[in-house]
Amino acid sequence: xxxxxxxxxxxxxxxxxxxxxxxxxxxxxxxxxxxxxxxxxxxxxxxxxxxxxxxxxxxxxxxxxxxxxxxxxxxxxxxxxxxxxxxxxx
Length: 90
Fold this sequence. Notes:
Elements: E1 4-9, E2 15-20, E3 26-29, H1 36-50, E4 65-67, H2 70-78, E5 82-84
């Protein structure tokens, strides 16, 4: 079964839409639109693009986390490594 697009008014009184799965889970929420016609046009664009859209990963890799003595921390910071102190705080 297909999901649905719901039009709604946000807290700034702007029109937005959300894509809702059949189980009620919200899959995506749009940006703001000035009117329903603009939101409906964007929904049509999503329908056209989503089925054939490619996936592009732009997530930065997570920093490496190590425990180090204070003198090691200087060297690790130069390499971009996040160092945890003795209590586990960053």
